[in-house]
Structures are given as C-alpha cells and as structure tokens.
Amino acid sequence: MKCFLLSIWIALTVLAQSTLGQNFPVTQGKVYKFEKVADGVYYATGGAGSNNVVIVNDLDVMLVDDGSTPAAARALLADLRLVTTKPVRTVVNTHFHYDHTDGNSVFGPEVEIIAHQYVRNAILNFDVMHREPYLTSTGVLPSQIEALKKQVEQERFADKLALLTKQLSDADALRAGLKEVKPVPPNVTYDSKLVIFKGSREIQLLFLGRGHTGGDTFVYLPKEKIICTGDEEEGSRVAYMGDAFFDEWIVTLEELKKLDFNLVLGGHGMPFRDKAVITAFQAYLKDIVEQATALRKQGVSADDAAKRVDLTKHAKDFPQITGPGAEVRGVRRIYEWLAEKEKK
Ligand SMILES: [Zn+2]
C-alpha cells in the first residue's frame, strides 16, 4: 500500500494534467501545456514537478513555481515563447519543496525569486536533498523505472502503451534532470503580505498561516478573482503531508475561503471553482488526524497507523483513495507534530 500510494503520487506529479482544459484556450508546447485562464494568465502543466502559473504583465512575466529540475524550468521557459516574448523577471516559490523550487538555479540575478521567509531558511538550513520529500520521492525512481519498463514490455493495448511509454520517458528524464539540481533559495522574502503592482496588474502574495509547510504563499489576483494555492490546496488530490502543521492547516484553509475568487489553480491536480472542494479537504485532514491520534494513544506505531487509518469515506472527493491506508510520511508527520505539541 505504501509503495502503491507513493508511486501514484509521483506518477501524478510527473503527469499533472488538467481537465478544465476544455473551457480554456490551450497552447501545447513541447513539454508544457498552457491553458489561458484569464487575460495574460496561463496555467502550465505537463512538466516534472509542480503545475505552474504564468502571469504576463505589461512589461514582464511572473512565474509561480518552477518545477523539480533545472531542465524542467528550461523547458518551461522555452515553451513559454509560444505565448509571450516578454522576459521572466519574477518567480514566486509557493513553498520550499523540491518540486516547486529546483528550477530556481536557471534564473540569473536579474530575476527576483520571492517567497515567504520560511522558504529561504528551509532551503539554506534543512539539508533539503537529504530529507523528505526529496529523499523518497526521488529515491524510488530507479525501481519505478524498472517496473514501468516491464509494464511497457507486457502491455498489449495501444492507448495504455502510449501512456506507459510517456510515464517511462518522463521518469527517465526526471532521473537525469535530478543530477543537475542545486537548491537555490529565494532572493526576496516577506513575512505576511506583499502586494506587487505590475502595470495594470495587482498581484498579492499572502501568507495566511502555517499549513502544508511552515511557510506557504497564496498568489492572489484580486481583479481576476484567481488564487494560486501551491500545495495548500490541490483540489481532488490529497496533498503531501510530511511537513504539515495540521490544525493550523485547517484554519489557514478557512482563511483562504474568505477571499473572493472563482478559480483555484493548485500546485498539482486540476483547477476548480467550488469552495466546497476546500471544505472536503479540511474534512479529510480532520479525519486523518483524529484517527492517527487515537491509534497513537493505543501505542500503534506511525508506520502501522499509516496502514490502518481508513479514509475511504473521502474517496468520492479524492479518487486516489482506493482502500484503507494513507501515505506513510504524512502519518509519521502527524505523530511528530503531536509530540511537538505535547512538549509545549
Ligand atoms: Zn509541497
């Protein structure tokens, strides 16, 4: 179960696709697909790691997140030429995880890389390439590639074979691209709110409280009523929970719902409009924390608790839930977080 959930998480990360696509004009690059969700605003999917948001302003471009590798960021910049010739001058890292920040190294000093101050501290001090989520998510790639090779050999149906072949080449490219990774911290930080005016565009960077990590940014376009949520909120996907602050996450999502928006662009998964989707994730978080807390009280280990928690009643909101169990790193983090709270 552990490996199964993990490989789904990685496959979705590699393949991130959006289905609201039918509603928006699409420009397909070599790697990235750009959906035009508003004037000058594009949702870019299909590369290694995060989905990205491209905000084209009067003179220049802002990117929200930049993928898992320098190669992913370069592919994004190359494909971007299909929708604008303006230069990228600003990158926002929604949080410190490698799949949102490891494209940072391709940008020169003329580019402001902006994030919450927690992100700079994390990239400088957390030894990010020797801890989760980088360690396991990239460490399983060789065995995932071997498994995909076997599946490709055995697959008889053409459409499934095409999908598996694409997964295999994406995984191969990711493994090669990771060799080049040098974590680079943001060069501009803020601590609660930063409002950027780019010509006629207003862009708000908002820290609404701890949640998915200790320092996640929402990128909010108030005029367009669009919010970019990073991994705080991924729609019908359960976000990675290995660095979470669970009770605060639920409160932060409540703060998020108070904002006026009608389109949510997550760091993974698919765009959505309905705030009930956020409420469903709050319910999932509350449930997994309650179940893990009860198991911990009974003396069950975190790894066993990860097998025993049963979130299947949330499967209607999160299709990746196919049976009992949850991603082990998230449950280990719940245990660690409960211990941290007891010390206070
Ligand atoms: Zn993340």
What are the key terms here?
alpha/beta; Metallo-beta-lactamase, Chain A; 13 strands; globular; 40% helix; 11 helices; binds zinc ion; single chain; disordered N terminus; five-stranded mixed beta sheet; 344 residues
Please identify the top-level CATH class.
Alpha Beta
- The percent of residues in helical segments reads 25-40%
Category by helix and strand content = alpha/beta
Instruction: Give the CATH topology.
Output: Metallo-beta-lactamase, Chain A
How are the SSEs ordered, and which strands pair?
Layout: H1 2-15, E1 26-28, E2 33-38, E3 41-45, E4 52-56, E5 61-64, H2 70-80, E6 88-92, H3 98-101, E7 112-116, H4 117-125, H5 134-139, H6 141-154, H7 158-178, E8 188-190, E9 193-198, E10 201-206, E11 218-221, E12 226-230, H8 246-258, E13 263-266, H9 276-297, H10 302-308, H11 328-343
Helix pairs in contact: 6-7, 8-9, 9-11, 10-11
The chain binds zinc ion.
Zinc ion (ZN) binds at residues 95, 97, 212, 231, 240.
Give a quick precis of the structure.
The chain is α/β, with parallel strands linked by helices and 344 residues long. The protein has helices at 2-15, 70-80, 98-101, 117-125, 134-139, 141-154, 158-178, 246-258, 276-297, 302-308, 328-343, and strands spanning 26-28, 33-38, 41-45, 52-56, 61-64, 88-92, 112-116, 188-190, 193-198, 201-206, 218-221, 226-230, 263-266. The chain has one domain: Metallo-beta-lactamase, Chain A (4-Layer Sandwich), CATH 3.60.15.10.
